[in-house]
Amino acid sequence: MMALRKLFRLKPGSSDSRSVSAKDNGGRRSKRSSTTSSPSSHSSSPTCLPNGHSSARNHQIVPTTNQPLSRQTSPDKSTNKPSNCTIRSRRLLKEYQELCRSVQNNTQNGFTPFTVDLVNDSLNEWNVKVYQFDSDSQFYRDMKELSVEYVLLNATFPENYPFAPPFVRVVSPHIEKGFVMEGGAICLELLTRHGWASAYTMEAVIMQLCASFVKGQARIKRNKGNAKQFSKKLAEASFRNVIKIHDRHGWVSDA
After folding, report:
1. Model-level pTM?
2. Backbone phi, then psi, for 22, in 5-degree steps?
3. Which helix (H) or strand (E) holds 122?
4. Strand-pair partners of 129
5. In sequence order, what are the residues at sequence separation of 6 or more whose Cβ sits closer than 8 angstroms to the Cβ of residue 119?
């Protein structure tokens, strides 16, 4: 029996011992690989967001600083849109500066058709003094005979100017005919919402008014008598009545 045990005793360098050790090593490697590269280990460990909630449980889209949400960063377009008062002020300032330069150039050349002054330093109300009219007209001769130096006009501008016309009236002298109505209102389609265009300027309006006085055979009233004085309140009421009449029957221009 002792001989048989010695015969079948395994030696340390035999092939059977190598196979046993290889199996042990393979088992260890498989255990290490299963613990390090198991797919389930990655899916079972959710990442945490800065607020303490996990992305696996709360499927939320968190905006970054590089990609902000449009609702959070998009500016309100209505706040960037200029108001009517801003548009009016810009337009009137531009026109007033251009008229002042034009008047200055004409004065240097010895010719002053009209001047413009701001009422109470406000761009929204102007006083216009018209000095020059057609020298062949009866209105011009009346000015010379009565020593009337100029015709004073007053212009007020609505909030939606230049998309709406200014209100222009005669302050002095007291004019008859020439499309001048009670209170100093002026019956001219150009000064209505139907005849007005935003491209028109006050210089063009003044020139058109001068032509309408001559065309309408305006005269300066010598004896006022019981005639009503020109006033803004009366002129506004008269102009509203004129607009109603022409809205009903239309505007007729002479050929």
Report:
1. 0.66
2. -65, -40
3. strand 122-130
4. 115, 152
5. 125, 126, 127, 154
Return the closest-CA partner of residue 202 out of 150, 166, 169.
166
The CA-based diameter of the chain, rounded to the nearest angstrom, is: 165
- Treating both helix axes as pointing N-terminal to C-terminal, what angle do 202-215 and 138-145 enclose, rounded to 10 degrees? 90
User: For 84-247, which CATH superfamily applies?
Assistant: Ubiquitin Conjugating Enzyme (3.10.110.10)
Kindly indicate the confidence band of residue 15, based on its pLDDT and cuts at 50, 70 and 90: very low
Instruction: Give the chain's length.
Output: 255
Which residues are designated catalytic? 187
- The encoded tokens of residue 240 equal 């509203």
Q: Find the DSSP H helices in the chain.
A: 2-8, 15-36, 39-43, 70-73, 77-80, 84-108, 138-145, 202-215, 232-249
Structure tokens at 7: 């015969």
Give pLDDT tens digits for 86-138.
Answer: 999 999 999 999 999 998 888 888 888 999 999 999 999 999 999 999 999 99
Tell me which residue of 87, 86, 89, 116 sits closest to 100, measured CA to CA.
116
CB burial class (10 A; 0-12, 13-18, 19+) of residue 192? middle
Question: d(Cα 40, Cα 58) in Å, to the nearest integer?
Answer: 20
Q: What is the DSSP string of 102-116?
A: HHHHHHHTT--SEEE
pLDDT band at 179 (very low <50, low <70, confident <90, very high): very high
CA separation for the pair 97, 117 (Å, rounded): 11
